[in-house]
Design brief:
heterodimer; A: about 120 residues; mainly beta; six-stranded mixed beta sheet; four-stranded antiparallel beta sheet; 12 strands; about 0% helix; B: mainly beta
C-alpha cells in the first residue's frame, strides 16, 4: 500500500539557521513527490515537486528538496530560516500511473522559527 | 488571476441543518476535489470529480453530497447526517491530461462550525 510519513509533528529552528522537514514514502516505481505549505486558516500552497531528473529540486520562497531513492525520502530544506517560514508543511506522493485523486498527504509538520 | 474561490470563509450552522459550500475554479481544470482537515489528522478526501456530471466518493463521503453541473463549479453539501461536521474544508483542482503531473491547486478553505 502507498503511504507517506512525516515523522516529526513539530520542528523548531532559530532564524538564520538551516532547516529540514523530513518526509519518507512508500510507493512502487517512480513516484511524483510534492511539498505544500499552509498558513493559519489558509489553503495549501504548492511549494515544489519532484518528477524525474536532478535529485535536488528548487521551489518557492527559497525552499528546496532532496530526493533520495535508496532511502525513499524527500526532505524539504532551506539554508537560512525566516520567521515568516513558520507554517504547517505537507509532503504528498502520487503514483504517476494512478489518478491525481490518489495523491496521499502526510500528516503535516509544524515548523516554528524563533527570532 | 486564475485560481480557486471558496465561499463562505466562515460558516456557522445549527445541528440538523444542511449547508452548502461553494467552490469555483477558472483554471480550466477537469478534476476537482473536496478535502476535510481536522487538527492533527492531515487531509482526508471527501469526494472528487474528473468530469462534468460524474463524481466519486473519497475516503469519508458519508454525510456529504456533491454535484458537478459545470466544469468550473463543485459545491459540497454537508448534510444533517454528518455526525461531526465542524472542520476546515478545502477545495482543490488539477489537470488530468496525459503527461501532466497533476499537482493540486487549493482554495483558501471554508471553516464550518456547528453550534
Amino acid at each position: 500500500a502507498q503511504s507517506v510519513a512525516q515523522p516529526e509533528d513539530q520542528v523548531n529552528v532559530a532564524e538564520g539557521n538551516p532547516l529540514t522537514v523530513k518526509c519518507t514514502y512508500s510507493v512502487s516505481g517512480n513516484p511524483y513527490l510534492f511539498w505544500y505549505v499552509q498558513y493559519p486558516n489558509r489553503g495549501l500552497q504548492f511549494l515544489l515537486k519532484y518528477i524525474t531528473g536532478d535529485n535536488l529540486v528548487k521551489g518557492s520562497y527559497g525552499f528546496e528538496a532532496e530526493f533520495n531513492k535508496s532511502q525513499t525520502s524527500f526532505h524539504l530544506k532551506k539554508p537560512s530560516a525566516l520567521v515568516s517560514d513558520s507554517a504547517l508543511y505537507f509532503c504528498a506522493v502520487r503514483d504517476p500511473y494512478s489518478s491525481a485523486s490518489k495523491i496521499i498527504f502526510g500528516s503535516g509538520t509544524r515548523l516554528s522559527i524563533r527570532p | 488571476d486564475g485560481g480557486i474561490t471558496q465561499s463562505p470563509k466562515y460558516l456557522f450552522r445549527k445541528e440538523g441543518q444542511n449547508v452548502t459550500l461553494s467552490c469555483e475554479q477558472n483554471l480550466n481544470h477537469d478534476a476537482m476535489y473536496w478535502y476535510r482537515q481536522d487538527p492533527g489528522q492531515g487531509l482526508r478526501l471527501i469526494y472528487y470529480s474528473q468530469i462534468v456530471n460524474d463524481f466519486q466518493k473519497g475516503d469519508i463521503a458519508e454525510g456529504y453530497s456533491v454535484s458537478r453541473e459545470k466544469k468550473e463549479s463543485f459545491p459540497l453539501t454537508v448534510t444533517s447526517a454528518q455526525k461531526n461536521p465542524t472542520a476546515f474544508y478545502l477545495c482543490a483542482s488539477s489537470t488530468i491530461l496525459a503527461g501532466e503531473t497533476g499537482e493540486l491547486f487549493f482554495g483558501e478553505g471554508s471553516r464550518l462550525t456547528v453550534l
